[in-house]
Design brief:
Elements (H helix, E strand, L loop, with lengths): L2 H24 L13 H5 L3 H9 L4 E4 L4 H6 L4 E5 L7 H12 L3 E5 L10 H9 L2 E5 L17 E5 L7 E5 L5 E8 L2 E6 L13 H12 L7 E4 L8 H8 L2 H19 L17 H14 L3 H20 L4 H12 L4 H7 L9 H14 L1
Parallel strand pairs: 1-9, 2-3, 2-9, 3-8
Antiparallel strand pairs: 4-5, 6-7, 7-8
Helix pairs in contact: 5-6, 11-14
Length: 369
């Protein structure tokens, strides 16, 4: 082998060895922890971990942001979670919930932090029906790692003394934070703000055990229907102001405005005006549109807009869904039975000669609903 190659190899090995020695003495490899902010889905839904946990066990989850008696009456689930401040409490709703529980329903009622229970007698009557009284406890309880994370604003008292079918969960100072009572075939659970169900608490063992017992232990009873809200997150401008440079934004906006004005303002003379031509009358435009739809066999599309809006209003206000009920109700509003109206509400073919009369009837019914 060439002597020069051996000398070069030796020098290279010595240099690399010295560099490795220097780096080993002066530098240390340490793990770099990088904080990753939660996703927007997790920031908006503080119960995201609970939802995924339940779905992973085959328990369906359905969520609404608000509710009232009509929402409850249409729910098919036998287990319902209600955030008190997002529900429209009435005496009828309270009576319905009592009978619903007795028939086998499971109700979980959460008195969230921003809720002022003294303002709602209907909710108080529901709690009194089960012998539960609310009291405010403004003093903070000592943290206990072996106790679930209950809400710290509300506590409860039971009159009379609970029997064997009642579960009362207390903290160290003997304050009741959660109550579960059996009534008929169902059960009623009430607590304050359910911090033990939030995504950042549910992984702790006491919180996970309580969440399992309340929401997942009897999986054969079907899914959960949640009436609860979502948290507000920073939008684009909020994130920009908190993480970006406001001065750069202002300077860029000013330059953009100058360029925009420079391009639109004429440099020489006045802008020559143009005379506006009068538009066509509304009737002529309406007939032209009707001829265009007729040419392509699409007159039904024009009427279908009115039909869909009539169906939506009757379904939302009166709970009518079937064609027969909708036709009957529309004929009551119109004042007489009409075969043309019935065909239009069934989305059947409308002839061109019937088109103006059909539109007039549908428009009149829509205005009277």
């Amino acid at each position: 082998m060439n002597r020069n190659y051996l000398i070069g190899f030796g020098v290279t090995a010595v240099v690399l060895g010295l560099l490795a020695l220097v780096f080993s003495q002066l530098f240390k490899i340490v793990p770099d922890t990088k904080y990753v902010t939660p996703s927007r889905e997790a920031r908006v839904n503080e119960y995201l971990a609970l939802d995924r946990w339940l779905r992973g066990m085959g328990i369906p989850v359905r969520v609404e942001r608000s509710g009232d008696l009509s929402v409850l009456s249409q729910a098919e689930e036998k287990r319902i979670f209600i955030q008190a401040s997002l529900f429209e409490w009435t005496d009828e709703a309270a009576e319905y919930l009592v009978s619903w529980i007795e028939d086998g329903g499971q109700l979980f009622l959460a008195l969230d932090f921003y809720y002022t229970h003294e303002d709602d007698s209907s909710l108080l009557s529901l709690l009194e029906e089960f012998g539960i009284t609310i009291k405010r406890v403004l003093t903070q309880t000592r943290y206990d790692s072996e106790s679930p994370a209950y809400g710290t604003i509300f506590a409860f008292e039971l009159v009379p003394v609970p029997d064997g079918d009642t579960l009362c969960l207390k903290v160290r100072n003997d304050i009741i934070r959660l109550v579960q009572l059996k009534r008929g075939k169902g059960s009623f659970t009430v607590t304050g703000r359910p911090n033990f169900l939030s995504s950042w608490n549910i992984s702790d063992e006491p919180n996970a055990r309580l969440a399992w017992a309340l929401f997942a232990e009897e999986a054969e009873k079907g899914g959960w229907f949640f009436i609860r809200g979502t948290a507000r997150t920073d939008g684009f401008l909020g994130s920009l102001f908190s993480n970006g440079n406001l001065m750069v934004l202002l300077v860029s906006g000013l330059v953009l405005l100058i360029i925009a004005f420079w391009t639109v303002i004429p440099m020489f003379g006045l802008v020559r005006g143009e005379e506006e031509t009068p538009g066509k009358p509304l009737r002529e435009r309406f007939l032209a549109e009707g001829r265009f739809l007729k040419r392509y066999g699409a007159l039904d599309n024009y009427c279908r807009i009115y039909v869909n809006e009539i169906r939506r209003r009757l379904a939302r206000r009166e709970g009518l869904l079937s064609d027969e009920d909708i036709i009957k109700r529309a004929e009551e509003v119109w004042g007489t039975q009409n075969d043309l109206l019935a065909r239009a509400l069934r989305n059947e073919k409308i002839k061109f000669g019937e088109f103006p009369k059909t539109v007039n009837m549908l428009k009149s019914i829509l205005e009277m609903l």
